[in-house]
Amino acid sequence: MTADPNGHLTAQTTGDPTARANGHPADGPWWRGRAELGLCAGLLVLGALVIVDALRIPDNLSQRGPVGPEAVPLLVGGALAVVAVLLAVDVLRGGKGQAEGGEDIDLDAPADWRTVLMVAAAFLANVVLIEPLGFPISMAIMFWGSVYALGSRNLARDPLVAAGLSLITWFLFDQLLGVPLPGGPLMEVL
Predict the structure, then answer these.
(1) Cβ distance 142 to 119 under 8 Å?
(2) 61-111: pLDDT as tens digits
(3) Are the beta carbons of 167 and 139 closer than 8 angstroms?
(4) Within 10 Å of residue 41's Cβ, how many Cβ atoms?
């Protein structure tokens, strides 16, 4: 930055003037340093998918009043699209997200793939076991496997908490909300 005779700050430019004239700075393409545009594109696609799915809701479901079941998904999809456009405009004008100051992470440390794979295995075990064992048992295995992968090694408490959470979740969905979830052999005993 340099100051002109009136005291206004101006940016110094360096590099090849023909590259700047063609819209490409000398240090790389225009999108360098604008990774947020990928997030904008993802939000826009997600908003479009939500809107398209909302418009495909059958009419017989929406005849319960003036506001049908497609109202909220249309609102959410539209909001996602508006946020994507506003964020893209901000990024193209030079806006950047601020790094979180309170985070205590080492960005140079490698990813802990062992933990990622263990959590993924817990989720896949839930997918495979939900039909033969039922929701409460498969979710208890997933909850316990996840906390074990994330570092908890209390072998007395963790399985009990996982079993309690899975039973409460099954009861809330199956009994109170009326969303049928497979109970499995455990429900025959209870």
Answers:
(1) no
(2) 445 666 777 888 999 999 999 999 999 999 888 887 776 666 677 778 888
(3) no
(4) 12
Beta bridge pairs of residue 103: none
Name every residue whose Cβ is closer than 8 Å to that of residue 46 and which is 6 or more positions away in sequence. Answer: 80
Spatial separation of the C-alpha atoms in residues 41 and 49, rounded to whole Å: 12
Token digits for 27?
């240090």
Stated length of the chain: 190
Dist CA 179 CA 168 (whole Å): 14
How far is it, in rounded angstroms, from Cα 171 to Cα 181? 9
DSSP string, 75-121: HHHHHHHHHHHHHHHHHHTT--PPPPSS----TTSPP-HHHHHHHHH
Does the pTM surpass 0.70? The reply is no
Pair of tokens at residue 141: 């295995």
Three-state SS for 7? Answer: coil
Neighbours of 126 (CB within 10 A): 21
